[in-house]
Specification:
It comes from Streblomastix strix. This is SPRY domain-containing protein. The protein is built from two helices and 16 strands. It is of the alpha+beta class. It is rod-shaped and about 195 Å long.
């Protein structure tokens, strides 16, 4: 078009009408192209906007899905936790029931044992009472040396020593032996207990030979003697005044308590054997009233002193008030 416009031959030059038409066409083409580009741009923008909206929806859906998944996981975890707590609660309940049942069985067993012990002890006390009544304080001694006249114990030999052991052997209950000494020209006598296995020969004192570790005696001056040891602290035994011994076989360890003129003496003995006999060593007569007594409770408190080792050992330690005395 440009070459034809500058042609030297006028006839070859385009007419005004042609030029106008050509410019219009070009303008229309430019406009159309511009419109197409604008439409393309707008379409692209709308497409991008739609893509962004879709991407946002996808993200929201993924977020909701993840949230739902997490909630499901949390719910399952909570269910598991509740199950574990339920199992634990059932286990603790079963444990509590088992413990209660064990405690109940233990309590019942202890009650049964206590009942059996009480029944056995009651039977032994009844048997002991019957035997005491039947034997009337019979002696385990040779009548050529000692005899019993009613409630009196009288020596018949003229030796220097004598020992009287009483039947029956004491194995249970709280038992006392009491009386008083009378008309003893030598003013020398002893009372005490012996292991039931001890056997006393003619003209022998309680502590002769092996019997020394099987006996505990209280002398006329109040001293206790065992295994060659002498322990002071008790009141003297006086003629014509009551003297008594009490053994408590219901407690562990078993105890022996002395009484002079109805007063409990401060020095007592523990860990005495499980089977004992009361013994006397009179020079002449233990006078009336001589008595056995089955007691319901102990008269001795047993709280002032104690022998912390069993009978039959060569050393006795006595705790008197706050002072430790070794004999």
């Amino acid at each position: 078009m440009l070459e034809s416009m500058i042609s030297k031959i006028p006839s070859q030059r385009p007419s005004v009408q042609s030029l106008l038409e050509s410019n219009i066409m070009q303008l229309v083409s430019v406009i159309e192209k511009s419109n197409e580009e604008k439409e393309t741009h707008e379409s692209k923008e709308q497409m991008n906007k739609r893509v962004n909206e879709l991407e946002l929806k996808v993200q929201l859906l993924e977020f909701e899905k993840e949230k739902e998944k997490q909630e499901k996981i949390n719910a399952l975890s909570e269910i598991d936790k509740l199950k574990q707590e339920k199992i634990k609660a059932l286990s603790e309940k079963d444990k509590t029931i088992a413990e209660k049942e064990q405690e109940k069985q233990k309590t019942q067993s202890e009650r049964d044992q206590e009942k059996r012990r009480a029944d056995t002890e009651h039977a032994e006390v009844i048997s002991l009472t019957a035997e005491i009544t039947k034997l009337n304080q019979s002696l385990q001694s040779d009548p050529d040396h000692v005899i019993q006249q009613e409630n009196k114990i009288i020596r018949t030999n003229k030796g220097l020593r004598s020992t009287v052991a009483f039947n029956p052997a004491i194995t249970s209950g709280i038992v006392r032996l009491g009386g008083f000494f009378k008309d003893d020209p030598f003013d020398y006598f002893r009372i005490g207990i012996a292991d039931s296995s001890a056997v006393f020969g003619s003209d022998e004192g309680p502590n002769k030979g092996e019997n020394d570790k099987k006996t505990v005696c209280c002398y006329k001056d109040g001293d206790l003697e065992h295994f060659g040891d002498y322990i002071r602290g008790n009141s003297p035994i006086e003629l014509n005044k009551s003297v008594a011994m009490e053994v408590n076989m219901n407690i562990r360890p078993h105890t022996l308590t002395f009484f002079c003129d109805n007063q409990e003496q401060p020095v007592s003995v523990i860990n005495i054997p499980s089977s004992i006999r009361f013994i006397l060593s009179p020079q002449e007569t233990l006078a009336s009233p001589l008595y056995f007594e089955i007691a319901k409770w102990a008269a001795g408190t047993g709280c002032s002193v104690e022998m912390p080792i069993p009978m039959g050992r060569p050393c006795i330690k006595i705790l008197k008030k706050a002072i430790k005395v070794t004999a």
